[in-house]
Write the structure tokens for this entry.
Amino acid sequence: MSNETKTKLKSVVPFLVLIAIAIAALFAVPEAAFDPASVVDPVTKAPTYTYNSGDIAWMLVSCAFVFLMTPALAFFYGGMVGRKNVLSTMIKSTVAAGIVSVLWILVQFSLCFGQDLGGLGFIGDPRTYFMFKGVMSGEPWSLAATIPLPLFSFFQLMFAIITPGLVVGAVAERIRFSSYTLFIVLFAILVYAPLAHMAWHPEGMMFKWGVLDFAGGTVVHISAGCAALAGALVLKPRKASLALPTGPANIPYVLIGTGLLWFGWFGFNAGSAVGSGSLAVYAFATTNTAAAAAGLSWMFFDVIRGKKPSVLGFSIGAVVGLVAITPAAGFVGVPQSIFIGTIAAMVSNIVAELLKHKTGLDDPLDVFACHGVGGMMGMLLTGVFGSKTVNSLVLDGQFMIQLKGMAVAVGYSFVVSFIIFKFINFILPMRVTAEEEEEGLDASQHDEKYVQGTLLVKNGTLVEEKPAY
């Protein structure tokens, strides 16, 4: 069989899988929405559950906020890579919205929040909500009793969508699109789902330990950061000529992405209060404060080291602050969030420089330093500054509990992600050829080009066009 035939067959498989899922969905029976008034206390005859219209409205808005973070991430990453890889980087982040949304309905929601499988606190039973069975008509989630179960599910879906998209920055400019789409599927099932179940399900292992992760320090950022490290190790560095600093393709894209990420993060963190009460306000306040402090910290730390204050520096720092406050947002005081953002940005900055200049690791957009290390800092500082005054879930000895949970998250996500990358590389080479890498992935993988050039117009007529490359 020729290589061309093999390539065609491989390209047909994902389409056939989608068609099979679509046909199977035809046989699912539509369900009526759950009516809390139909479930009454046998003694008082009062409804067991009561929905809150304010909570529902806020959570619908939060869903939209968090979804916006995925295209925002595409702008953030797309602006930082080289000109020949802008579109290929952006689509790898964005396509997760398609893949994970279908996978979530099929089985991933069950794996994350279904009945605990085997009493191990590791993963949910895939049969619980298979094909979204029982979700529309199901009783509210036990920790979000004032909103319908499908709303809770779709809010959680937005987290699952953006997480594999974060990994893109570490494997940019050299990974095949087809290979990355397979990575999204395997990562979502084998890494994200177990961590979400362990950390956020009442029967989850880390949840029972008392590990605090308000909005995804372990589940989202540590998992993505450690997967990014594994991917960079497996794929190895870019060609020397491409790895040389050539400057970001479009810094305004980075700034747009930063603003939209910051905006979306209010839904990410404040929405994780699962209601419109005072805890959401607290999370909103700590989120904004940590991001502001971290942006300034990264920028001024660069100045101290002899660099000039930059748009890129402030933008990256702000995102690190958002990452670090994510696990802590509903557990720490607002003043303490300044410290969390400031320290996390400095530590991530140092780690990024060390990895870039002292090791052979090629993580083009510093995903491990920003998301992995930022998430770790946030988890540990939650244990330091978590206050029972803010949230009664904070325990005595919380720091050691956080350290234990962080160790599990780091070890599990790195090892399993490394195995996933190796497995994919064995069955479907992950890296593009040297010629494709030189041409750029926009053209070689997608037959598209990002052109940012200069148009010269005279008397209303285009007289010359100077493309960027």
The beta strands are 454-458, 461-466. The first strand starts at residue 454 and ends at 458. The mean pLDDT is 91. Residues 398-427 form the longest helix (30 residues).
